Amino acid sequence: MTDNEARTEDQVGERVAGLLLAAGGGRRLGGRPKALLEHRGHPLVEHAVGVLRAAGCTRVHVVLGARAEDVRARAALDDCVLVDNPDWEQGMGSSLRAGLASLTGTGARAALVSLVDQPGIGARAMTRVRAGYRDEASLVSAAYAGVRGHPVLLGAAHWAGIAATATGDRGARAYLREHEAEIALVECGDVARPYDIDTEADLVHLE
């Protein structure tokens, strides 16, 4: 990598912030917060932050909700901005709104949004989606066999519109459906597995 390429990479790292949604209470997991599930010897939230860092995000905001104090105590998140979502029980939409609001005024021009319960999506997929950033109007999404999934990159020009429509567990889904023609899809099916850790049966995916 040349010096100019390194400087460009650093600039993108500053412009594209990582936004990890990790507030869920794990209702179908007997009330065990997903952030505290163990994966590769660490809490899942810690693993997910490491993936965003490995993908080049120098700023990472983590939205916490269920048992937030326990997450703070047990996970090594010292270099992250921790965002408390008191409305986490209302669903992922409230966490997305809280996370985007926390990025306002930071200088970030886009958010690379990931979910704590998708450990099969690693740094290679995150890096591909992040590389799709062009400017504040960017909308980029991972795709799996052509079907849109996570992670997604949301340019700052879209944050207000997303926040206005992010309710329940829909997250940015409604907004992205309305702006589908603007989304750059990045195929990631060859480097990631987009399963969710939702039920006891899904715990087999954790290592």
Describe the sheet with the most strands: 7 strands, mixed
Radius of gyration: 16 Å
Write the H/E string, N to C.
HEEEHEHEHEHEEHHE
Number of helices: 7
Shape: globular
Please indicate the percent range of residues in DSSP E strands (runs of 2 or more). 15-25%
Quaternary structure: single chain
Count of strand segments: 9
Main structural class: alpha/beta
Q: Which residues form runs of ≥5 with pLDDT under 50? A: 1-10
The helical percent reads 25-40%
Distance, first to last CA: 34 Å
The strand line-up of the biggest sheet is 5-4-1-6-8-7-9
Q: What average pLDDT do the residues reach? A: 91
Summarize the helices and strands and which ones pair or pack:
Elements lengths: L2 H13 E7 L15 E2 L2 E2 H11 L5 E5 L3 H7 L6 E4 L7 H12 L6 E6 L7 H8 L8 E6 L2 E9 L3 H7 L7 H6 L5 E4 L20
Parallel strand pairs: 1-4, 1-6, 4-5, 7-9
Antiparallel strand pairs: 2-3, 6-8, 7-8
Helix pairs in contact: 4-6
